[in-house]
């Protein structure tokens, strides 16, 4: 499929429903009628090319538009990543948790295997939440302020002081791998656990874990290959514009 | 485990072979080229195990020279633009071949590289030693603690742990703990 600005938004979704995730995360409301991609983007105040680059990547998977995505204001990407976070925290994770709870009630195995999986998954949730908290409370506000201050005549004093001793590179060190445990969970369920009596739920949990895993993967790619390089560039510009 | 180079001028055939080989077990790396010069360059740098070469491409060197550029165990499979008789050799494929025919021939060649590399006699089963190490890991011991308890070096512990992770496909300590409980290596009360 060739994705172009004059294509109808509804046709785009119909040809690849996985793109719904992108729409949701950009907070594009439904009810497109016959509007084109271009029109919908304009109405929602979303940069057309930013949108096109994202959906093309999600759809084709052929090329990664890292360079192109970097040319947009960083606040867009932050907004996107933030809604991705809330999608994980408010929806994906509780859903998987609930399903494991449900499986537990079906589980009559002597070893209480599902109880074990639930414990494992709850540990994961804790880890995951602190990862996201770090980004939401420290990293993203820093990035937004960096972009804001760069546009000013003179930077805010407190921000200027902060940036002297800080770079986004420090964050990279703290950026832990949140996929590892999820992959383990998937492998244990897939390889080492006999499914409990209700197979439909079991299969569905696996499907959702695979989905979340892929989604997290994309999330990491966007952070490490677009967000971080872009912020490094902004930091450089900032230091050039406001030398010490 | 084979590295494959597709040397084919036709865009359609090239893409078709790429998509077929992408889903074939045993292909570790895949490259495609269409122009004779690019093919030569890629051959030298990439050193594939299997070269799929369209017989209609005029290469700048003779066949003998081409074979000498390839490594000792490498092989050439020719892509023909004409149909092949039913009993054609496996070293030839045709653009008219069915998917099954193509898969059969290509898998045959690729599988030969798999057996050569697989001389380690790999099993997924943990050895008794690995089970013992796993038990200690699952109980939350550090590499150092395990080493001193079992009178081995930390280096050995690390190498066992790598093997355990590879065999089980489980990376994290809590994942390994779950596995250990599921398989009766430790008890839930132990942790």
UniProtKB/TrEMBL annotation, chain A:
A GO term from the CC aspect: cytoplasm
Source domain of life: Bacteria
Signal peptide limits: none
A Gene Ontology molecular function term of the record: metal ion binding
InterPro entries hit by this protein: Hemerythrin-like, RIC_family
Domain (Hemerythrin-like) ranges: 110-230
Compartmental location: Cytoplasm
Protein name, UniProt field: Hemerythrin-like domain-containing protein
Species annotation: Marinilabilia rubra
Automatic annotation (TrEMBL), chain B:
GO molecular function, one term: DNA binding
UniProt keyword list: DNA-binding, Transcription, Transcription regulation
Cross-referenced SMART domains: HTH_LUXR (SM00421)
Segments forming domain HTH luxR-type: 119-184
GO BP term, example: regulation of DNA-templated transcription
Source organism, top-level taxon: Bacteria
Pfam families: GerE
Record PANTHER family: DNA-BINDING TRANSCRIPTIONAL ACTIVATOR DEVR_DOSR
Protein name: DNA-binding response regulator
Species of provenance: Marinilabilia rubra
